[in-house]
Structures are given as structure tokens and as C-alpha cells.
Design brief:
two-stranded antiparallel sheet; mainly alpha
Length: about 200
């Protein structure tokens, strides 16, 4: 069939063609899993420790300082929650105040290990970070938070590339497919919202 979607970074390697948006997003997910499997195999074969805590801290400190200088408390809060989702083991907990009693809130089981990671642990953290990118409709907040998420993702990716020989090109492909998938899902939501 006729391709309905294409993304230049993907054309060099992926050659993904689709007949509709659902097919496009599904094929991106399949390719993401395929490339991820190749990376996972290489990652599992390495035992060189990976350290990412300092790099992630620097990324979020910079974005939070920028938000503070702009007096944007909503952005500071959202960046803090995103940072917490990366650096802590989050768990559901029951509300404890009279306002939240009976409701589920987000709690912490403690700090997440971000240094002396096995490459497999670092890969899992990288994937978790990638899943934190989102668009809420608050454009300036979304831009700042997603920039921090992308930069934290890059920190982990670069450290993994130092520890696992031969994954740099696979990581680039994985990142391109992931970006295309996230952007396509966002585009599809906008089209549906505007009934286009």
C-alpha cells in the first residue's frame, strides 16, 4: 500500500511503511522491540559497571534552576516529580490526610540505585526514562520537562555505550524509532481531538 507516514531519521535504516496511523504506530512498536532485543543481548553480555546518578542530577538541577529563575512553580513541581520518578522506587500508597484518605497517592520505597549498575539495570533505567516523555497540552512545561527527560536519557545512553561495545548504532536506531513512535502517538491524539 501507499505509505502514509515517513520520518527522515528512520529512512536510513528502518524503511517502515504503513497504510494508516494505527499500523504506523504498531510497526514502530514492533521495530522498537526488535532493536531493543538486539541491544538487550549485547547489554547482557557486558559486566562493566555503569554510573548515571551525577549526570541525571546535573540535568534536572539545570532545568529546575531555569524554572525557578522564571518563577514557574508549576514547572518546578513537574520537573521534581519527573526527577523523583527516575531517582526513587515509586509505589502506590493510601492517602493519609482527611482530604486524601482512601485515595491512592504516589509514595516512595526509597532511593533507586543509579551507580554501580549492571548494564542490564542501566538499560532498564534508560527505557523507564524514555517512557516519561509526554505532552499534556502545557507547551512550555512539556518542552522543559521533555528536554530534561531527553537529556537524562542521553546521559544513560552514553554511559551504556562506554560499557557495552557495539551498541552505539543500535542505540541511535532505538532512539529514532522511540521518538517517531512518541511523536506519532501525540500527532494522532491531536488529529482525533480536532476530528481531522
Amino acid at each position: 500500500g501507499k505509505a502514509i507516514a515517513s520520518w527522515e531519521p528512520l529512512d536510513a535504516y528502518e524503511k517502515i511503511k504503513a497504510n494508516n496511523w494505527d499500523d504506523w504506530i504498531q510497526k514502530l512498536g514492533q521495530r522498537q522491540n526488535e532493536i531493543g532485543g538486539k541491544i538487550k543481548s549485547k547489554v547482557a553480555a557486558s559486566n562493566i559497571p555503569v554510573n548515571v546518578e551525577q549526570g541525571i542530577d546535573i540535568v534536572f538541577k539545570k532545568e529546575i534552576e531555569r524554572a525557578v529563575s522564571q518563577n514557574d512553580s508549576a514547572l518546578v513541581d513537574r520537573l521534581g516529580k519527573t526527577y523523583r520518578a527516575i531517582t526513587e522506587e515509586l509505589i502506590p500508597v493510601k492517602g493519609k490526610t482527611s482530604v486524601t484518605e482512601g485515595n491512592i497517592e504516589i509514595g516512595s520505597a526509597g532511593k533507586r540505585q543509579l551507580n554501580d549498575l549492571t548494564p542490564t539495570q542501566a538499560w532498564d533505567i534508560k527505557k523507564r526514562i524514555g517512557e516519561l516523555a509526554k505532552w499534556t497540552g502545557a507547551k512550555s512545561e512539556d518542552t522543559a520537562v521533555n528536554r530534561a527527560v531527553q537529556n537524562a536519557y542521553r546521559v544513560v545512553r552514553k554511559e551504556l555505550e562506554k560499557s557495552v561495545p557495539g551498541i552505539k548504532q543500535l542505540n541511535e536506531r532505538y532512539a529514532n524509532v522511540t521518538s517517531a513512535k512518541v511523536a506519532s502517538i501525540y500527532r494522532e491524539k491531536i488529529l482525533k481531538r480536532h476530528d481531522i
